[in-house]
C-alpha cells in the first residue's frame, strides 16, 4: 500500500497523538529544577504542597500555551503552503511576525515601560493590520497573483523591520520591553492568555477545516481548481484570513516562534501525503507536540537556567531547512 494511504492515515494521527501525550507528561514532570515525579503526580491528584503547587501550575499554563500555539502555527503553515503552493512558505510571509513586533515597540515607546498583560491585544492588532496591508496591496497588484502577495509581504516586512530597528536603537527603554517578547517563550504565559486568543484560534481552525477540500483542488493548479468549480480568489482570501488569525494569535501570546509553521507541513506531507483533510489534524497534533518538546528541551539542557523555546525551535529547524534545500524539496 502506498505510504500515507488508507489505514496508515488514522494510524499516523493516533501515533502523533501518543507522542503529544508523552510530551505533555514530560512538560508536567520536568523543569528547570529537578522535582520528584511522584510528588508532582501527587499534587496533580489533589495533594497539598504550596511550593510544588506553584511549580505545577506554571507548568500547566505553559503546557496549555504550547498546545494552543503549536497547533495554531502548524495549521497556519499548512494553509499558507496550500494557498501559495510554496513549500517554503510560513506565516511570516504575511507579515504576522513583524506586524506584531512593530505594534509592541510602538506601544512601548508611547507608554515608556513594559507592556505587560496588554501585549497580547497589542501584538494581535499589529499582526492583523500588517496582514491586512499585505493582502490588500497584493490583491491590487498583478490581479492578486501569489507572486504579488509574496512580494508585497517581503516589502512590508522589510519596511516594518527597519522601523523596529530604528525604534529600539533610538530608545533603550523600548528595547528593554521588546527583547523579552521577541525571542519567543512559553514561560510566564498564564492560562488567561489562552482564553484571550481562544476566539481567534477557534475561528482560524474552523475556517481551515472548511477549506480543506478546496485546498486539495488548488494543489492541482489554479486552472484545474477553477474547472472543478473552486472559487480560487475566494479560497485564497479565506486561507489568508485563517492563517492570519492562527499565526497572529500564537505570535501575540508567546512571541515569534520560528520554523514550526515551516517544518511541520513538510513532516505531515511526508507521513500521510497531500490530502489536506488529513494534513490539518495531523499538523495540529505534531505542531503542539513539537513546541512542547522543544520547551522541555530548553528547560533541561541548561539547568538551573532555561533556553527560550524560540531559540530551541530555531536551532532544530535550521538543519531541517538546509536538508530541505539540499534534497530539492523546495522545488516540489
TrEMBL record:
Membrane topology listed for this record: Multi-pass membrane protein
One GO molecular-function entry: transmembrane transporter activity
Keywords on record: Cell membrane, Membrane, Transmembrane, Transmembrane helix, Transport
Annotated localization: Cell membrane
Highest taxon above the source species: Bacteria
Ranges annotated as spanning the membrane: 12-32, 63-80, 92-112, 119-139, 145-170, 191-215, 235-268, 280-301, 307-325
GO annotation, biological process: siderophore-iron import into cell
SUPFAM superfamilies documented for this protein: ABC transporter involved in vitamin B12 uptake, BtuC
Pfam short name (any one): FecCD
Principal subcellular localization: membrane
GO cellular component: plasma membrane
Gene3D superfamilies: ABC transporter involved in vitamin B12 uptake, BtuC
Coiled coil: none
Family: Belongs to the binding-protein-dependent transport system permease family. FecCD subfamily.
PANTHER family named among the record's database cross-references: FE(3+) DICITRATE TRANSPORT SYSTEM PERMEASE PROTEIN FECC-RELATED, FERRIC ENTEROBACTIN TRANSPORT SYSTEM PERMEASE PROTEIN
Protein name: Iron ABC transporter permease
Organism: Leucobacter weissii
Amino acid at each position: 500500500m502506498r505510504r500515507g494511504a488508507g489505514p496508515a492515515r488514522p494510524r499516523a494521527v493516533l501515533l502523533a497523538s501518543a507522542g503529544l501525550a508523552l510530551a505533555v507528561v514530560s512538560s508536567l514532570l520536568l523543569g528547570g529544577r529537578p522535582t520528584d515525579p511522584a510528588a508532582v503526580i501527587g499534587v496533580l491528584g489533589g495533594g497539598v504542597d504550596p511550593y510544588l503547587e506553584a511549580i505545577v501550575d506554571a507548568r500547566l499554563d505553559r503546557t496549555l500555551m504550547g498546545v494552543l500555539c503549536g497547533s495554531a502555527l502548524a495549521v497556519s503553515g499548512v494553509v499558507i503552503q496550500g494557498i501559495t503552493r510554496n513549500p517554503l512558505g510560513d506565516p511570516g510571509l504575511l507579515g504576522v511576525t513583524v506586524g506584531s513586533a512593530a505594534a509592541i515597540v510602538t506601544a512601548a515607546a508611547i507608554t515608556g515601560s513594559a507592556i505587560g498583560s496588554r501585549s497580547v491585544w497589542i501584538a494581535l492588532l499589529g499582526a492583523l493590520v500588517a496582514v491586512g496591508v499585505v493582502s490588500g496591496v497584493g490583491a491590487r497588484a498583478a490581479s492578486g497573483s501569489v507572486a504579488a502577495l509574496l512580494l508585497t509581504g517581503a516589502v512590508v516586512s522589510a519596511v516594518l523591520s527597519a522601523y523596529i530597528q530604528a525604534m529600539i536603537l533610538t530608545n533603550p527603554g523600548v528595547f528593554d520591553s521588546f527583547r523579552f517578547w521577541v525571542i519567543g517563550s512559553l514561560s510566564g504565559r498564564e492560562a488567561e492568555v489562552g482564553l484571550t486568543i481562544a476566539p481567534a484560534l477557534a475561528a482560524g481552525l474552523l475556517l481551515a477545516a472548511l477549506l480543506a477540500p478546496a485546498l486539495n483542488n488548488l494543489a492541482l493548479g489554479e486552472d484545474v481548481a477553477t474547472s472543478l468549480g473552486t472559487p480560487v480568489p475566494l479560497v485564497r482570501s479565506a486561507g489568508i484570513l485563517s492563517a492570519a488569525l492562527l499565526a497572529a494569535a500564537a505570535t501575540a501570546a508567546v512571541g515569534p516562534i520560528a520554523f514550526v509553521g515551516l517544518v511541520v507541513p513538510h513532516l505531515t506531507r511526508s507521513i500521510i501525503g497531500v490530502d489536506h483533510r488529513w494534513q490539518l489534524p495531523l499538523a495540529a497534533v505534531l505542531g503542539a507536540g513539537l513546541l512542547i518538546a522543544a520547551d522541555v528541551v530548553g528547560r533541561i539542557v541548561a539547568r538551573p537556567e532555561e533556553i527560550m523555546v524560540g531559540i530551541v525551535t530555531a536551532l532544530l529547524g535550521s538543519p531541517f531547512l538546509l536538508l530541505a534545500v539540499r534534497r530539492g524539496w523546495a522545488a516540489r
